[in-house]
Amino acid sequence: MRKNLRVAAYALCVRDGQILLARSPAPDGTPEWVLPGGGMEHGEDPYDTVRREVEEETGYRIEVTGLLGVDSVRHILPRRFGRAVDHHAVRLLYEGRVVGGELRYEIGGSTDLAAWQDLAAVPGLPRVPLVDTGLRLLRERPAAGRAALAEE
Fold first, then answer.
1. Which domain holds residue 30?
2. Overall domain count for the chain
3. How many angstroms separate the CA atoms of 90 and 5, rounded?
4. What CATH number did the domain enclosing 11 receive?
5. Which spans in the chain are helix H?
């Protein structure tokens, strides 16, 4: 089985009771909300990754105001021709504050829409689990930088 490691950085930008989210198609094509962010390029610092990705996906420039934590997940992903991949995702979650730019949509990238969503509406949105993990880290601010797992 092929192994794949992906390291990515994401931002939680919250202001006036709203969170900045981007929309991306799920594997089945249905749209779902995601935190702005994405994969690190080789040699890139994750701090620079999150700033670059937020600007690419939303049009905003952000100031990173803190590291909220690290999330690590592993999945076996089916691939074409029956070959599976052991995928390990390590995601660094930062708190960010918008300091410039204008809201716009990404063109030709992994997302097609960016918007401020009311925090109270997030539970009803189609979203990736990382949105909930990020909000939990933002709310709880665990000293170890890791949200407790449900089975712990």
1. 2-140
2. 1
3. 8
4. 3.90.79.10
5. 46-58, 129-140
The helix/strand/coil state of 53 is: helix
What are the C-alpha distances in Å from 85 to residues 79, 110, 114?
7, 21, 30
CA geometry: angle 86, 111, 70, nearest 5 deg: 50
Assess if residue 28 is contained within a domain.
yes
Domain membership flag for residue 20: yes
- Please give the share of the chain, as a percent, with pLDDT higher than 90: 75
Count of alpha carbons within 13 angstroms of residue 124, beta-carbon side? 5
Per-residue model confidence as pLDDT tens digits over 127-142? 999 999 999 999 999 9
Burial (0-12, 13-18, 19+ Cβ within 10 Å), 136? middle
- State pTM to two decimals: 0.91
| Side chain identity at residue 94, one-letter code | Y
